[in-house]
Specification:
Blueprint (H helix, E strand, L loop, with lengths): L4 E4 L6 H8 L4 E4 L1 H18 L25 H12 L3 E4 L2 H15 L8 H12 L3 E2 L2 E3 L8 H11 L4 E3 L5 E3 H7 L11 H4 L5 H31 L9 H5 L4 H14 L8 H5 L9 H4 L1 H23 L7 E2 L5 E2 L7 H29 L22 H17 L21 H35 L6 H12 L12 H12 L2 H10 L4
Parallel strand pairs: 1-2
Antiparallel strand pairs: 3-5, 4-6, 6-7, 8-9
């Protein structure tokens, strides 16, 4: 395990901490301030629990059953029952990193001192994370309102020593056995604690944080592949001049244009269409080439806005009811996932559009009528060889799915809990489809990289000199096992290797020694 330690305090957490715990297996510790805040809030809950007046979540049922006052002798059973009954997920297992993120984020809210959970329960949550125990959470069960209820319930069930969980060795076993093997005592939930462990936007937020990290890397890679395609198509880099982008000052647009311009510095191909092909001068490139900074940049600006929403949510304490410093325990609607759901859907839209413009450049590279002298489908012996014809089919299929995934989940709502919860965010669903969209986008960018580098090598074989950054990208891609031009071969392994190259950030790493750091 990574020995990096993340300290959970009372004032939220950072995206970097979420990723460190979810993906890097960082250890988790509670700060002294968090332990004090937990204890103080618990005193308030205990005092209210001793009073005869009903308090939601402390001495009442839940949701549409909140009107029933629960006697003290049944309250421990009430908390166990809410976890057991709400652990009703179905479908495939959710990825380990997602479960770790939602567990850590729930601990973050618990540690804020606004939930009334005892310090020992919070410590057990940290112990389970540190032991590498991952509850089995299923794909379906959250409507993104009243929190990610079913996913969080499966996590709470593990704290109780019930249900199934995955051990650090990847084997799924009964949770009680795993806790015992790591010396962790199951928790006995008391008033409000079962509810407090379930009532948050933690799953959708964790997926948002990880998607933002992945998309930031992919957008930089997409700027690079757009530049490579421009170069391979003998396009002009004059449209990337900073003074053109300064008069339309969207920040992301300027960043993408600058990235592309730096990749193309020193190219012997750009702007030489008429000289190289003997055709009439080409006044303007096609939109998919010329407008790459505008499309990529608009996506970058969307990422920035989504990061603001994520930062606000990371600083939040999402629960219902909440414990306030003045001793009140108040019901609220902060568990509604709308703010997170909207940006998750927004990101799926911009990812789909980035995939769409990327595929259009790939298609242009393969079409002899629009590629300005490149062989059909970049084939070695067109007719005998099919070249990259079907690689574009695969890319087009991915783009088509991206468009379906761009349909907003948050525009839907379905009533639940006997109409008590009559408007929901569907934020978990928005997050799940965004993960698929991000996965697809990496493949789409990889296909453009594969096509553009082959096209540039074919130009270079004719005596032309690519940009130094382009040559660095090609050399690194070939060193990673992705083959260059030649007769037809089994293509899937090459595409898979290109995909892995992009996902690992190796394309950016290859060109930055030439270009300097890219944004």
């Amino acid at each position: 395990m990574d020995m990096h330690t993340v300290v959970v305090g009372t004032s939220g957490t950072t995206a970097q901490d979420v990723i460190a715990v979810a993906r890097g297996n960082a250890r988790v510790e509670l700060s002294a301030a968090a332990v004090d805040a937990l204890a103080a809030a618990r005193e308030i809950v205990d005092a209210l629990a001793a009073k005869p007046e009903p308090v939601y979540g402390v001495s009442t049922g839940f949701g549409a059953l909140a009107s029933r006052h629960i006697s003290q002798d049944l309250r421990a059973q009430l908390q166990r029952n809410i976890v057991r009954s709400h652990a009703a997920g179905m479908g495939p297992r959710v990825e380990r990193e997602v479960v770790r993120a939602l567990m850590f984020l729930r601990l973050k809210t618990v540690a804020s001192g606004h939930t009334g959970v005892r310090p020992e329960v919070a410590q057990t949550m940290a112990d389970v994370l540190n032991a590498g125990i991952t509850p089995v959470v299923h794909e379906y069960g959250s409507l993104g309102c009243s929190g990610d209820l079913a996913p969080l319930s499966h996590c709470a069930l593990t704290l109780m020593g019930e249900g199934d969980a995955e051990g650090p060795d990847g084997t799924v076993r009964p949770a009680g056995e795993l806790l015992a093997a790591h010396g962790i005592t199951p928790v006995e939930l008391r008033e409000k604690e079962g509810l407090a462990l379930l009532n948050g936007t933690d799953g959708m937020l964790g997926m948002l944080v990880m998607a933002l990290a992945d998309l930031k890397s992919l957008y930089t890679s997409a700027d690079i592949t757009a530049a490579l395609s421009l170069e391979a198509l003998l396009g002009t880099d004059k449209v990337l001049a900073p003074e053109l982008h300064a008069i339309r000052p969207h920040p992301g647009q300027g960043v993408s244009a600058d990235n592309m311009l730096r990749v193309l510095a020193g190219s012997g191909l750009t702007g030489r269409h008429a000289e190289i092909t003997g055709d009439a001068p080409r006044v303007q490139d096609a939109y998919s080439v010329r407008c790459a900074p505008q499309v990529n940049g608009a996506g970058r600006d969307t990422l920035d806005y989504a990061a603001v929403v994520a930062a606000r949510e990371l600083a939040s304490a999402v629960d219902n009811p909440v414990v306030l410093p003045d001793g009140r325990v108040e019901s609220n609607g902060n568990f509604h996932g709308a703010p997170v759901a909207y940006v998750l859907d927004f990101l799926a839209i911009v990812a789909a559009d980035l995939g769409s413009i990327t595929e259009r450049r790939t298609d242009r590279l393969l079409d002899k009528n629009r590629s300005h002298g490149l062989p059909p489908f970049l084939a070695d012996d067109a007719g005998v060889d099919s070249g990259l014809m079907i690689a574009q089919y695969t890319q087009a299929a991915l783009v088509s799915e991206m468009k379906r995934l761009a349909v907003p989940a948050s525009a839907d709502s379905i009533p639940s809990s006997a109409m008590q919860e009559d408007h929901v965010s569907m934020g978990w669903s928005a997050a799940r489809k965004l993960r698929t969209a991000v996965d697809n986008l990496a493949r789409i960018v990889a296909v453009e990289l594969y096509a553009a580098t082959r096209a540039i090598e074919l130009r270079a074989a004719g005596g032309l000199t690519p940009a130094p950054a382009s040559r660095a990208a090609i050399e690194a891609l070939r060193a990673a096992g992705v083959q260059g031009p030649g007769p037809d071969r089994f293509l899937a392994p090459d595409l898979a290797a290109a995909d892995a190259f992009v996902r690992a950030g190796k394309l950016v790493a290859a060109v930055e020694p030439v270009t300097g750091p890219l944004a």
